[in-house]
Task: inverse folding
């Protein structure tokens, strides 16, 4: 079996052991070794478990190829470095569209499916304005706020990523098939579920950690007290991402979840400027100048030229948290001072001091 097929087999393990999988991979195990160790620990009484997973992995790979999907395993340079910082990153991402879009700086916009006209308007405007500022918009391609944010980004000619709670070749909800095709041309539609996986209730809460994990910040628009958007917000907080919320009508009760976030310290959002300020983003038009000075960034002193370093190592050397470190690394990558390599590692490519 190929290394990719072993990564796919790891992705077929129950989600409760993915933390163990991540620990093995971060410790330097190959996907094949990690699979052997995890199966031996948890399925001692099932000697054929690994073989059955490998057979399913081979079938998933064939289906993915037939559907035109790109499989991006954890050790691939195209795997989003932001996602490697979460405790249980997916062993494989299945991508429709541009895998390169996964490494861009992103903001998640999430909220109600049965959204009000106000929420839809705000989501579309924020999606458009943030995309125009150079940020990728991440959401769940669901009805309501999610799809409005995606459409706003597309209208601005920006990049947007949809994270599905089904296989990347199974569109849910089905009426968003045309929207997904448009997103593929200006971003990507992705999933951790194997090709052909139908939408399942347990997949949607799990995909929320990917939405937040890909993003520098999560913006919540019109979320009720039991909204799935609050799961995304909690994941964001656990991952060290910023959480922001848009205030809404206090009379309807539709936004009690978002208002609870505001009471707990989430920043209030009235426009895209509030989000850009929170992220310490340069004003529109100033990014090129910032990149021009990137080769002189003191962060480069944390690298040994030509020697790859992962986020944990760079974080320890620089004193910056991974959430604060990633935007700086993206800027250095754009300037050509560093490059991404497999397993979410970075390497300095210039030799100047």
Result:
């Amino acid at each position: 079996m190929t290394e990719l097929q072993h990564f796919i087999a790891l992705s077929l393990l129950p989600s409760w052991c993915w933390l163990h999988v991540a620990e093995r991979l971060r410790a330097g195990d190959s996907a094949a070794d990690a699979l052997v160790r995890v199966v031996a620990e948890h399925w001692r009484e099932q000697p054929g478990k690994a073989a059955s997973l490998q057979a399913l992995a081979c079938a998933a790979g064939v289906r993915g190829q037939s559907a035109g999907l790109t499989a991006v395993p954890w050790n691939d340079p195209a795997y989003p470095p932001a996602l490697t910082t979460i405790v249980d990153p997916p062993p494989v991402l299945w991508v429709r569209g541009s895998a390169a879009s996964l490494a861009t700086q992103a903001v998640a916009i999430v909220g109600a499916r049965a959204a009000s006209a106000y929420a839809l308007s705000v989501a579309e405007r924020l999606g458009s304005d943030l995309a125009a500022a150079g940020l990728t918009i991440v959401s769940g391609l669901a009805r309501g706020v999610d799809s409005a944010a995606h459409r706003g980004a597309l209208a601005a000619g920006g990049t947007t990523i949809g994270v599905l709670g089904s296989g990347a070749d199974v569109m849910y909800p089905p009426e968003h098939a045309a929207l997904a095709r448009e997103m593929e041309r200006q971003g990507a539609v992705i999933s951790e579920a194997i090709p052909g996986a139908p939408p399942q209730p347990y997949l949607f809460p799990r995909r929320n950690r990917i939405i937040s994990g890909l993003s520098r910040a999560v913006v919540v628009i019109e979320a009720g007290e039991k909204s799935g958007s609050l799961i995304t917000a909690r994941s964001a907080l656990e991952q060290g991402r910023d959480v922001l919320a848009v205030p809404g009508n206090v009379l309807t009760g539709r936004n009690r979840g978002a208002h609870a976030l505001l009471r707990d310290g989430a920043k209030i959002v009235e426009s895209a400027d509030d989000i850009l300020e929170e992220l310490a983003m340069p004003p529109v038009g100033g990014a090129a100048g910032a990149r021009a000075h990137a080769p002189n960034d003191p962060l480069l002193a944390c690298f040994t030229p030509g020697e790859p370093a992962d986020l944990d190592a760079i974080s320890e050397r620089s004193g910056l948290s991974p959430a604060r470190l990633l935007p700086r690394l993206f800027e250095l990558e754009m300037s050509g001072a560093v490059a991404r390599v497999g397993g979410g590692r970075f390497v300095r490519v210039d030799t100047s001091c």
The longest strand covers residues 92-97. The longest helix spans residues 49-66. The chain has 14 helices and twelve strands.
